[in-house]
Each structure stands twice: as structure tokens, then as C-alpha cells.
Design a protein that fits this description.
By secondary structure, this protein is of the alpha/beta class. The protein is 29% helix and 20% strand.
Length: 372
């Protein structure tokens, strides 16, 4: 049964808990959460009011929740919430945590000390960063995300092929160019100021959830703020638990999430990995009569032509081998995906990759239960 089918049997969970994140996580069942996204206080250590050249005040981060007396106090806070998060995280789950240069390096050390295993650091490059008004440093145009699994040898969800399709059939890189949260998405107070100073764009959470969770998974955000994680989770039909102390943030998050319309179940099917498909040996194509010994196979643009033999091997000039090894030989490369390299002539004479024939057999296996 697919994860999508399983999700249809269970109601999506949408919980927002008011309170301290450590105490709230300690009340949750151990090993119950599939994915954690954490946007903890940055501990910016701001000194004085920041103003633009025209002397107008910059609406920055000066809330009490971002103030700590010392690095030691911040480290204690970080260790406490990260240990609680680890207790509720499933062994096959993963954690994302975002920060700036003020805190991300301290977070990374503590994360490793607690036994998490870093999978990637991802740079969120802001397409529209705030300028450095004082002209004393480089414009701070990025934040860093750490993606970590429960441990070095533990499994985790990574929808590699879905991300590659999302990125126009190119591997998703670890530098993401996304705009800041602005316009209608940015929640405001009655006076027009930002309701939450570090509200993240929903596009960022959409990509994180698409990459590292499945439909119906339970996502935990221990610093819920105005509910970006909840909005993205609801849209993608993930369950979520958000923990937040500020009642104004909670009120805004509830209203925001209520207005989100989940995607239809059919639209949530992801591009599957080849590993999830039944294995079809090349020889099966001969057994089924889709190809016949003596047939010619061609490389793209017919640069190379090979003859098919009864055992499934190919011959090209004085070289022979499997679809993969011969493909590598004629190209002078270390490896080759023969399914995509070699082509056959269709009924209209046009070249088609032999992978089309494999897909035809897979469709029979998956829909009719026909054994390969």
C-alpha cells in the first residue's frame, strides 16, 4: 500500500500547542514525529536601533524571545530543545534547523554532540535581501539550513527524483534562491508593521516538505510563529504539530492555516525512484518478443549501431557487452545507463529509447500483477 493510500485512511492532524517548546515536546510520545523543522531564536546580539540612511527605523528583530544573556545561556537553551526534539523524532526521521551567522555554527556543534548526523547544509540565498545600511559589512544575503538524520546509520526520507523533476530534470543543489516573505504573504499588525520579524516564505517550507517527507507524515515545528510550516504542511497534506508561546502569533497562524486549501490527493503523487519499480532484466524484452536477436539498436543520432544477440548482449564492430557496458565502451566513459542510451526503431521508423519497452512491462507488472 502506498503512503498516499495509507493517508486516505487517517485524518490529517493539525495541532497548535501554546507553551514552552521543551515542556511541550516532553509531553509528546517518543519516536512519533517524521520530520522536524526548527526556526529557533537567532540571538542576534543587536546593539541599539538600526536606521536607514533617511533615518527611518528598520523593523528588525528586537523581540524579547531573541535575547539571551550570554552564549552559554543560548547554548543551554539550544541543547535543551534539541534533546527534546531528538526524543520525539522517529529513528527514520530527519530534522531541519535554520539560522544566521549569529547562531548556526553553535547549533551545528550541539547537533553533532547530541548524535544527529548532518546530511547537508543548504544555503538559502535571498533574492531580495535587506541592504547593509551602515555600509560596514557585506550585505547579509543568505541564511543556512542544516538537514540532519537521527544518526549516522539511520534511514531517512529523501524524494530525490521528485526534487529532480521539480528542478527541470537537474539535480537539486544545496543553494536555493528564494525571495524573502513579502507582499500579501507577510502578516502585518494593524499599524502596518511586521507581525513576526522572521516570518519565513512558504516557498521555503514547501521545498523542505516536498524533499524530506511523505503524504500523511507528522511534521513538528517547535518555534511555530505565525504558522508557515503549518500552512505548507496542510497544503501538501502532511499532519503537523506547532508549538508557540505568543498568543498573537497563534491567533494569526490559526486564521492563516484555516484559509489554506489542501492539494488534491491525485496531485500529490511524486515522481518515484527507479529503486521503487520492479526490476526488469534486459533479457525479458527478448523473452516477451519486444526485441528479437538480430535487431539493430542505435545510439542517439545513430552515431553507433549494435546488433542484438540471443543472450541479450550487443555487438558493435569488434566490441561486445551488455547494454550498459557496451554503451560505456563506445562512448569511452566509465559507465552508461544503457536503457536510455540505446534506441530501437518504432513502427513509424522513429528512434525510441529501449526504456520505453521496459516501462511497458512494468505497467503490466504493477497493474495486472504479471510476473517479470
Amino acid at each position: 500500500m502506498s503512503s498516499l493510500q495509507k493517508s486516505r485512511r487517517a485524518k490529517t492532524r493539525e495541532d497548535i500547542v501554546r507553551g514552552d517548546c521543551v515542556r511541550a515536546m516532553d509531553a509528546l510520545e517518543a519516536n512519533s514525529v517524521d520530520l522536524i523543522f526548527a526556526d529557533p531564536p537567532y540571538n542576534l546580539q543587536l546593539d541599539g536601533t538600526l536606521r536607514r540612511p533617511d533615518h527611518s527605523r528598520v523593523d528588525g528583530v528586537d523581540a524579547e524571545w531573541d535575547k539571551f544573556a550570554s552564549f552559554e545561556e543560548y547554548d543551554q537553551f539550544t541543547r535543551a530543545w534539541m534533546a527534546s526534539a531528538r526524543r520525539v523524532l522517529k529513528k527514520n526521521g530527519s530534522l531541519w534547523v535554520i539560522g544566521s551567522y549569529h547562531n548556526i555554527f553553535r547549533i551545528g556543534t550541539i547537533l553533532q554532540d547530541l548524535g544527529y548526523w548532518i546530511l547537508n547544509d543548504v544555503v538559502w540565498r535571498k533574492a531580495n535581501p535587506m541592504p547593509n545600511f551602515r555600509g560596514t559589512r557585506f550585505t547579509n544575503a543568505h541564511e543556512t539550513l542544516i538537514w540532519a538524520s537521527y544518526g549516522e546509520k539511520t534511514p531517512y526520507t529523501f524524494n530525490y527524483h521528485a526534487l529532480k523533476t521539480f528542478n527541470e530534470d537537474v539535480q537539486m543543489r544545496s543553494d536555493w534562491i528564494l525571495p524573502l516573505c513579502t507582499g500579501a504573504e507577510r502578516l502585518k499588525n494593524n499599524d502596518g508593521t511586521k507581525l513576526h520579524p522572521t516570518q519565513k516564505p512558504e516557498s521555503l517550507l514547501y521545498r523542505i516538505l516536498l524533499a524530506s517527507s511523505k503524504t500523511g507524515d507528522l511534521v513538528l515545528d517547535p518555534f511555530f510563529g505565525t504558522g508557515t510550516t503549518g500552512a505548507a504542511a496542510k497544503r501538501l497534506r502532511r499532519s503537523f504539530i506547532g508549538i508557540e508561546e505568543n498568543p498573537e502569533y497563534i491567533k494569526a497562524a490559526k486564521k492563516r492555516i484555516k484559509d489554506v486549501k489542501p492539494l488534491s490527493e491525485g496531485d500529490l503523487e511524486l515522481t518515484a525512484s527507479e529503486r521503487n519499480h520492479p526490476r526488469i532484466p534486459f533479457g525479458v524484452l527478448l523473452e516477451r518478443g519486444l526485441l528479437t536477436p538480430g535487431n539493430r539498436l542505435y545510439s542517439p543520432q545513430k552515431r553507433h549501431t549494435a546488433r542484438l544477440r540471443a543472450d541479450g548482449s550487443l555487438v558493435c564492430d569488434d566490441q561486445t557487452g551488455s547494454i550498459h557496458s557496451l554503451g560505456a565502451q563506445v562512448q569511452g566513459t566509465a559507465s552508461c545507463n544503457g536503457w536510455e542510451f540505446w534506441h530501437f526503431k518504432g513502427s513509424n521508423g522513429a528512434l525510441q529509447p529501449i526504456d520505453m519497452l521496459r516501462k511497458r512491462i512494468r505497467a503490466q507488472v504493477q497493474t495486472k500483477g504479471v510476473a517479470a
